[in-house]
Amino acid sequence: MDTATDPNKRVIVAAPRGYCAGVDRAVITVEKALETYGAPVYVRKQIVHNRHVVEDLEARGAIFVEELSEVPEDALVVFSAHGVSPAVHAEAAMRQLRTIDATCPLVTKVHREAKRFDTQDVDMFLIGHAGHEEVEGTMGEAPHRMTLVERPEDVDKLDLPTDKPMAWLSQTTLSVDETMETVTRLRQKFPLLMDPPSDDICYATQNRQQAVKQIAPKCDLMIVVGSRNSSNSVRLVEVALEAGAKASHRIDNAGEILPEWLEGVSAVGVTSGASVPDELVQGVLEYLQERGFPAAEEERLTEENLTFSLPPELRRDLKASALKH
User: Fold this and answer.
1) What's the confidence (pLDDT) of residue 2?
2) How would you label 88-125 residue by residue, b for 16+ Cβ within 10 Å and e otherwise?
3) How far is 32 from 5, CA to CA, in rounded Å?
4) Where would I find the H helices in 190-303?
């Protein structure tokens, strides 16, 4: 191990990075549910897309399932931060499961927009990735009215009338630039295209992408901490390369860094996706220091002060439990 620091090297860590308000709320929801009701607490899908977080909650007594059919009668089930379709809510009610909905409020906002366009008889394009839980949940609000568009080049293949009003919505964790490119292409083909009342891509996704754009041009290597199924983490790798980083890699933790990535590298940028605990970033910074890199300098784009209150059904029971004690 080379522990002497090379004066020609630097490590820049991006801020904001890591947990956003929606992820923080979802993880705390499962933790508080375990404390309040005891194990097991079932969770439909991964509460957030991070392997480390899921394994930590499993160790405390959370049981992650793919579908509600795996949840026993009378059990408590938490819906993940990515949201669920009305069909899932209906199934839970039919089976009389106790539910806590930890859907991120910014995802709920997109669901509300979908319902509003549906009541106005307006068909929609949903910009997002097929198979992602958030996309499945949003499309479930009005499946008969929604067409999924995954990337800008898909617009050319759309065979829909161009002379009627259409609206666009998007998954909250996409690349801002690619989404706007897709919207521009949609507007060229569908001139009556309507925008959602406000931008769907979440503040945290945008902030993390802007913070990476700020430091990427100075970096020979950009390391993004985040799990493979985390859409916003995968986007950060692409954003870093587009913004000028010479190389960029996504890892779950410091153990996945390949030594050859650091050969000939003097400036390393580090960031993390919105579902990543900061201890995993600290592990990367320690790894770099052990290999001759200096302590990291942080470049902060903006302060994030947004917080979301816990789901109402959990708040009610927490309050009742506090009154008892």
Assistant:
1) 52
2) beebbeeeebbbbbbbbebbebbbebbeebbeeebbbb
3) 43
4) 203-215, 231-242, 278-290
Q: For residue 75, which amino acid is it?
A: A
CA distances from 280 to 25, 82, 96, 142, 223 (A): 19, 22, 39, 38, 12
Q: What is the pLDDT of residues 262-273, one digit of tens each?
A: 999 999 999 999
SS3 of 31, please?
Answer: helix
Per-position b or e across 235-248, b if 16+ CB within 10 A of its CB: bbbbbbebbebeeb
pLDDT in tens, 93-141: 999 999 999 999 999 999 999 999 999 999 999 999 999 999 999 999 9
pLDDT at residue 199 in the model: 86
Sorted by sequence, the CB contacts under 8 Å of residue 190 that are 6+ apart come out as 160, 162, 166
Helix axes 231-242, 203-215, angle to 10 degrees: 30
Q: Sorting pLDDT into bands at 50, 70 and 90, what band is 325?
A: low
Among 133, 134, 136, 141, which one carries the catalytic annotation? 134
In the residue annotation, 73 being an active-site residue is answered as no
How far is 84 from 53, CA to CA, in rounded Å?
Answer: 20
How far is 61 from 40, CA to CA, in rounded Å? 5
Residue 320 class from Cβ within 10 Å (0-12 exposed, 13-18 middle, 19+ buried)? exposed
Name the amino acid, one letter, at 125. Answer: F
